[in-house]
Amino acid sequence: MKLPTRLIHVAQQPDALGSVIPPVYQTVPFEHEYDRHGFEYSRSANPTRRILETVIAESEGGKHGLAFASGVAAITAVLNLLHGGGHLVVSDDIYLGTYGLLEQVYRPWGLEISYVKAEDPDGFRAAVRPNTRMILVESPTNPLLKITDIRAVADISMQHGILLAVDNTFASPMYQNPLALGAHIVIHSTTKYISGHSDVLGGAVVVNDDKLYYDLKTYQRSAGAVPGPWDCWLTLRGMKTLPIRMRAHSENALFIAQKLQQHLLVDHVIYPGLPTHPQYALARRQMSGFSGMVSAELKMDGHGVQRFIKALRLFPLAASLGGVESLVNHPARMSHSYISADQRARIGVSDSLVRFSIGIEDADDLWSDIEQALKTVMSDE
């Protein structure tokens, strides 16, 4: 079966009462006197969560899936495989929630961390030390949409006997499957494209290795950062439409990226689906589509960017992404305001950078809104 069919039918057959849609098992305890298929307490396991974990694993072509209360909770579970020690190599352009977790929690606990350019496999190779235990990457990255050669970095991890974890949130399982490229661990913020409606927090980890699963499951059960059954059900519902949503996101994003390229107030556009992207050929090799994230450098300073954003009508200024609605983000003023200007400059996040999460609205309407906002800035000057 192909992915659209699997997302609807795997582990979601009618139950004993004939319910076609899996029910929400809104319970904490399970009766102990009878065989309940391993269910005793919902922190350890819940039937609704088990279905979600099965479907998430299936979406990535993996053997084991684990659901968490948020994307950061999923990343925390993976980092806890290191038991607070050793050395971690991380791509430089990374979600600031991950950066904060690394710098504010794990480095003070003794974890050594090196950041390397996401697009440079040789940089990953050079950064490996005798005590390196994991490489953690995002591809595409947030917010500069750099592409990491996952297969090349997987070869490095294999040569050195270390783990490779890939945050696949921006691509979604629809357009990229890191396990098939050699990664050991796949991470998702299911809050984003997987649930797809900006109404439920969640995270997920997918692995093939039984020992990794056992260690992650032990952490999940012990730490308890699990989603409730209603959150699991909402995420399951969102997953059923993932393929058609991702096609709409991608079509709209390519259209908007092409239009932005032609505008006088746009310096350059960053979108992996454009031939002008520095890693376009690599993106085509390891991705089957390019998702809905578009970043652009505007020909204006930070104040001009703020005027542009304020003039938008269909793009709320918000920090999330991947929902059916379009959003705009100003990284220098929002997510990356927590790091110094020098750090932002080293990464490549300027005051002129904007990040669009392109939704599934009518593409002409979205472009008309962006165009009128750009005209507003021009008329103000």
Overall description:
The protein has a 7-stranded mixed β-sheet with strand order 1-7-6-5-4-2-3, with helices on both faces. The protein has 2 domains: about 5-240, Type I PLP-dependent aspartate aminotransferase-like (Major domain) (Aspartate Aminotransferase, domain 2); about 245-380, Aspartate Aminotransferase, domain 1. Strand 5, helix 7 (about 170-175) and strand 6 form a beta-alpha-beta unit. The protein is an alpha/beta fold and about 375 residues long. The chain is globular. Helices cover about 40% and strands about 15% of the residues. It is built from 14 helices and 11 strands.
Keywords:
381 residues; alpha/beta; Aspartate Aminotransferase, domain 2; Aspartate Aminotransferase, domain 1; 2 domains; four-stranded antiparallel β-sheet; 14 helices; 11 strands; 14% strand
Shape: globular
User: CATH superfamily membership of the largest domain, which one?
Assistant: Type I PLP-dependent aspartate aminotransferase-like (Major domain)
Question: What structural class do you assign from the helix and strand content?
Answer: alpha/beta
Put simply, the count of helices is 14
- Mean pLDDT equals 94
Spatial strand sequence of the major β-sheet:
1-7-6-5-4-2-3
Low-confidence stretches: none
> What's the level 1 CATH class of the largest domain?
Alpha Beta
The ordered string of helix (H) and strand (E) elements is HHEHEHEHEHEHEEHHHEHEHEHEH
Under the CATH scheme, the architecture of the largest domain is: 3-Layer(aba) Sandwich
The largest sheet, given as strand count, sense and whether it forms a barrel, is: 7 strands, mixed
The figure for the number of domains is 2
| Strand segment tally | 11
Strand percentage, roughly? 5-15%
Helical amount among residues, as a percent range?
Answer: 25-40%
Rg (CA only): 21 Å
- Terminal CA distance reads 56 Å
What fold name stands as the CATH topology of the largest domain? Aspartate Aminotransferase, domain 2
